[in-house]
Design goal:
heterodimer; A: 713 residues; mainly alpha; MetI-like fold; 3 domains; two-stranded antiparallel sheet; globular; B: 350 residues; alpha+beta; Rossmann fold; OB fold (Dihydrolipoamide Acetyltransferase, E2P); 2 domains; 6-stranded mixed β-sheet; 8 helices
């Protein structure tokens, strides 16, 4: 075991090309010195990398752990200290003389060397008795932590460091303070004057509004589904899946077609009721409606779970104690679901803070942080420092809300009071409350149906609302197949981005699921020092808005030591670390239903943890694995906020392509493409749940498949 | 011969709280030893320490003479029957029974052969292809036992094996386990909180209380010579009465209980005040020359009567079991209370 990793580490130094991830093959053919392995480079600072490997002696665990740590440490130090244009930090230049040595970005050799060092350290620590001497557990733990530090921690730190620098790269705390407390972020002019308020206040107001309304709507839906006779359950279940498979911006697009200046509803009102056309939809009202359509189902899923867990026998007990319906609801049901309401509010709040696509499409002149970050980078200003500062503010908001949510759900859950299933009937809702529910739910359902109707149909008419002649032109533009000289080929303009998206999503899916479930296994089944911190780190990437991830990846991976921008790899990596928490949640949810004694039985029968994982846990978790894979695939296909920063000419993605079409007013193509995506996603979901839904293991029915996984857009 | 299991001053702490506090014991080969105690006393932690599912904070654990303190569960020659049975739900009976053999690298064909013979031993031939969910609770438990003994471990561990069975099945399964243990000459460590179950199956019982060993001995020794108030009360109810001791010789003492004087072994109790454990069956009501008392409550239980008797001049209430159901004594009757010396024991150190 140890010899294998030691051999790989040597291979990383002596055989594999040290620099360049994509270039090496080209470079090797041109015999460029960069493509040589580390020790043949003639770069002296790489030679010390061999020293730890000489120290790694079998039977000396302490030395082994030390050698792994030293190898990694020196790799980080020399990588960060020596950049592609000389010293990585000005003070190094002052110390050793500018410009200093240079080196390109790290390549496969370095990657294999780093991985081997992690494993050597894990073996060394395990042999000293860490993690009960379990190499597999310790190795996976160090590996996951290392990956999270590299692909979540390092980018976030890069935001911090570039926020405190000016655009030339010098350290400028004054400029940072000026940018951070700029009135364009924190100004309160809208309260006293006519100017717009600061973007931070805009964002907070928007998120609070959406949080409150989404929670109320979600509650109305949950009550209607569980506490009335309305035959809504199958329909609601379907609607709750829609936001998962809907690309986030198409709702904004559909709203424009309904309520914009030339929208269907606007036309109707202008024609028949003489209500003047206006642009009211662009801005806060439009964003609010779009986000409510997108996030209410999430609040609904949370509240259905909470409401469903309120034992009917409690309500029956209240009624036998002479409480009327209204009194029962007010004194029993409501207090029991209150923690759930707070949770639903915070989740919708975070979603709204992080939402990028709807404000982009329908925001008009109303700025929020996520769009401002984008325009600071791609706009004429191209001010990375400002983007970094805005990202910091947004990150502070979401992390605060995230921590509040965790603290709240951690301490205030009443739902597991009894472990026994209770029979009994839930109390029917008091009359006025039921009427209020209906009055909310039914119009909202009409709006939802209208919006999705437009999304599905809007691309198949000439100009929706004005010229409703059916046409296949847009479908043909995007997805035509023609016969040329070389036979059939895909000539539509959308094929390229569609296929790229499929490819990258399919590559990312198994990695995401594996990493997520491995992390879930470590969190749920193993005890180790710093477990709380590890869990926080792993789940934190859930709370980092996509725009922040996007900007941080640009800042962190644009220059050596790790240079990934412009590659497909960076998109895959962003998929993996954005969606990993879904796998973690699905994994933890179903692992906690599998009794620990199964692992222990396997262990006492002589199976070590890897074998136990493979033979006992993975087979039982198969439904959870499929769920995690489906969700990470779907999310990868529909995400836009992070990848809009990362796409390149070579690797363009479906969602970014659609946003581009919508941006130049080609709504037909955008809608057709969205409809195609939705149909493909729905087919994937339906196909998978048809396959997985049949597999039941015994009467314990440990299936996670029917558990709703709350997903962030 | 090396003992099968040996604990040398083993402590297990979770944070500051000790779940098991400096305990030492040995278990001889071929014995069935029960760890008995109320919930939270550390008995299950002790069992898991033997299995290697928990690792000791201090002290040494030896199995078959070998130091295993730092070995993981997979590396120890023990196997365990879990309270929930922990049968793998996605594997059939035969696959479950083979699991440990395959994990230790035995070829599948040979493993299946061995597993079949052990399944036959527990009376489950013909059930090989069933899933655990298709078996009754008692059958599931037999699979769990077969899966554990197929490895022929140095020590076999049972964690409350009867708690998921209904009352009638319990006595039957209890006897089966004991018979299997004696036929195969297995060393068994058995955890339970049910003192009757412990007395019925064990060669030896280790009573635990508050993370420590309260007493370690044969069932008879525990019942007849409890080492402490806790053991006296936990193993078969005991009335504990304050008495004065006056030592007469090496073994015997005169015990004064109110106006009664009894001659009993002093069991190390010093002159002065002490406590006397009185079994409910050892109290006689209505024989002349006893302490004055009054029946406070009486209950008819079919096979016997239960009384609560107040002793005159004290706050003590005696719990009494009387075999005579034909002439019950109604509540309120004044009675004379005497004792059968066979059901009395001075509790030392109390």
């Amino acid at each position: 075991m140890m010899r294998v990793w030691l051999g790989l580490a040597w291979a990383g130094l002596v055989v594999l090309p040290w620099y360049g991830l994509e270039a090496p093959l080209r470079a090797i053919s041109a015999l460029q010195p960069e493509a040589l392995p580390a020790l043949w480079q003639g770069r002296v600072w790489l030679w010390p990398l061999a020293i730890p490997l000489l120290m790694a002696i079998p039977g000396r665990p302490r030395l082994l752990a030390l050698s792994g740590a030293l190898g990694l440490a020196w790799l980080c130090i020399e990588g960060l200290a020596i950049g592609h244009r000389g010293w990585g930090a000005p003070w190094l230049g002052a110390l050793f003389g500018a410009p200093g040595p240079t080196q390109p970005a790290l390549g496969w050799g370095a990657a294999v060397y780093a991985l081997s060092c992690v494993m050597l350290a894990a073996i060394g620590l395990a042999r000293q008795g860490w993690c009960r001497g379990d190499v597999f557990v310790l190795g996976s733990l160090l590996l996951v932590v290392g990956l999270i530090v590299l692909f979540v921690g390092f980018p976030v730190v890069s935001i911090l460091t570039s926020a405190v620098r000016d655009n030339a790269g010098g350290f400028a705390p004054d400029l940072f303070a000026e940018k951070l407390f700029n009135s364009s972020i924190w100004g309160l002019d809208c309260l006293v004057g006519t100017h717009a308020c600061g973007v931070a206040w805009n964002t907070l107001a928007q998120a609070t509004l959406v949080g409150v309304l989404a929670t109320l709507l979600g509650l109305a839906f949950a009550l209607a589904a569980l506490r009335t006779n309305l035959p809504l359950k199958p329909l609601l279940r379907l609607l709750s899946l829609l936001p998962v498979i809907t690309p986030p911006f198409v709702i904004g697009l559909a709203l424009i077609l309904l309520f914009g200046r030339a929208g269907v509803v606007t036309n109707f009102l202008a024609l028949h009721f003489d209500i003047p056309r206006s642009r009211w939809i662009y801005g806060m009202p439009g964003i609010t409606i779009a986000q409510l359509l997108a996030f209410t189902p999430i609040a609904f899923l949370v509240l259905v779970g909470v409401l469903g867990a309120v034992s009917p026998s409690l309500e029956e007990a209240a009624q036998t104690l002479r409480a009327g319906r209204w009194h029962t609801f007010r004194t029993v049901t409501w207090p029991l679901i209150r923690p759930g309401l707070a949770n639903a509010f915070l989740i919708s709040f975070i979603e709204s803070l992080a939402d990028f696509a709807n404000p982009l499409v329908i925001g008009g002149n109303f700025n929020v942080l996520s769009t401002d970050i984008f325009f600071a980078v791609v706009g004429a200003a191209h001010d990375q420092g400002r983007a970094a500062v805005l990202a910091l503010v947004l990150l502070a908001f979401t992390l605060t809300a995230f921590m509040a949510q965790r603290a709240w759900t951690g301490s205030r859950s009443y739902t597991t009071v009894t472990g026994k299933g209770d029979a009994g009937l839930s109390a029917p809702l008091p009359g006025p409350l039921r009427a209020a529910c209906y009055a909310t739910v039914l119009p909202w359902l009409v709006l939802t149906v209208a919006v999705y109707g437009i999304i599905m149909a809007g691309g198949f008419v000439v100009t929706f609302g004005r010229d409703n002649t059916p046409t296949l032109d847009y479908l043909w533009t995007a997805f035509s197949i023609e016969r040329g000289v070389g036979g059939w080929f895909l000539s539509g303009s959308g094929w390229r981005s569609f296929i790229t998206t499929m490819e990258l999503a399919l590559i990312a899916t198994p990695v995401t699921a594996a990493l997520g479930l491995l992390t879930a296994y470590l969190l749920n089944r193993q005890n180790f020092m710093g477990k709380g911190a590890f869990e926080f780190l792993a789940m934190m990437s859930f709370a980092i808005p996509g725009t922040v991830i996007g900007i941080s990846y640009i800042l962190a991976f644009n220059v050596p030591p790790v240079e990934l921008t412009g590659t497909g790899l960076i998109i895959v990596i962003s998929f993996v670390f954005r969606n990993m928490p879904v796998g973690i949640r699905a994994g933890i949810a179903s692992l906690s239903q599998v009794d620990r004694s199964l692992d222990e039985a396997s262990q006492t029968l002589g199976a070590r943890s890897f074998r136990t994982l493979r033979l006992v846990i993975v087979p039982i978790l198969r439904p959870a694995i499929v769920t995690a894979m489906v969700y990470s695939f779907v999310r990868a296909m529909t995400t836009v906020s992070a990848v809009i920063f990362l796409v390149s000419g070579e690797y363009n993605l479906a969602t970014v392509y659609i946003v581009g079409r919508a941006d130049v007013g080609e709504y037909g193509v955008a809608l057709v493409y969205s409809a195609v995506l939705i149909v493909v996603m729905a087919a994937v979901l339906a196909g998978i749940s048809a396959v997985v839904g049949r597999q039941k293991i015994g009467r314990r029915g440990m299936l996670a498949a029917d558990q709703p996984v709350v997903v962030q857009a | 011969m090396q003992p099968a299991v040996e604990f040398r001053a083993v402590t297990k702490r979770y944070g500051a709280a000790a779940a098991v506090d400096t305990i030492s014991f040995t278990i001889a080969r071929g014995d069935l030893v029960t760890l008995l105690g109320p919930s939270g006393c550390g008995k299950t932690t002790t069992l898991r320490l033997i299995a290697g599912l928990e690792h000791a904070t201090e002290g040494q654990i030896r199995i078959g003479g070998k130091d295993v303190t730092r070995l993981s569960a997979a590396e120890r020659d023990v196997s365990m029957v879990f309270q929930s049975y922990a049968l793998f739900p996605h594997m059939n009976v035969l696959e479950n029974a083979c699991y440990g053999l395959l994990a230790s690298g035995i070829a599948r064909k040979r493993a299946e052969e061995m597993a079949r013979s052990k399944l036959a031993l527990v009376g489950l031939s013909g059930f090989e292809t069933r899933l655990p969910s298709e078996l009754s609770g008692g059958q599931q438990q037999r699979v769990a036992v077969a899966r554990a003994i197929v490895l022929e471990p140095e020590v076999l561990l049972f964690d409350e094996p009867l708690s998921n069975l209904d009352a009638k099945l319990r006595r039957h399964v209890r006897e089966e386990i004991r018979a299997l243990q004696q036929d195969l000459k297995l060393t068994v460590v058995y955890v339970t909180h049910d003192q009757q179950e412990a007395l019925a199956v064990s060669d030896r019982v280790i009573v635990m209380n508050a993370a420590r060993i309260a007493q370690d001995g044969t069932p008879r020794a525990l019942y007849e010579q409890p080492a402490s108030r806790f053991v006296a009360d936990f193993i078969g109810d005991a009335n504990l009465l304050p008495v004065t001791v006056r030592r007469m010789d090496e073994t015997m003492a005169e015990i004064r209980l109110g106006s009664l004087a009894l001659t009993l072994p002093h069991r190390g109790a010093a002159n002065g005040s002490a406590e006397l454990a009185v079994r409910p069956q050892a109290v006689r009501l209505g024989e002349a020359g006893g302490l004055p008392g009054q029946v406070l409550r009486a209950a008819y239980l079919g096979s016997h009567m239960e009384y609560e008797v107040g002793l005159a001049g004290t706050a003590a209430e005696l719990f009494v079991i009387a075999p005579d159901v034909s002439t019950p004594i109604p509540a309120g009757t004044e009675v004379s209370v005497t004792f059968d010396p066979a059901g009395l024991a001075v509790v030392p150190g109390s």
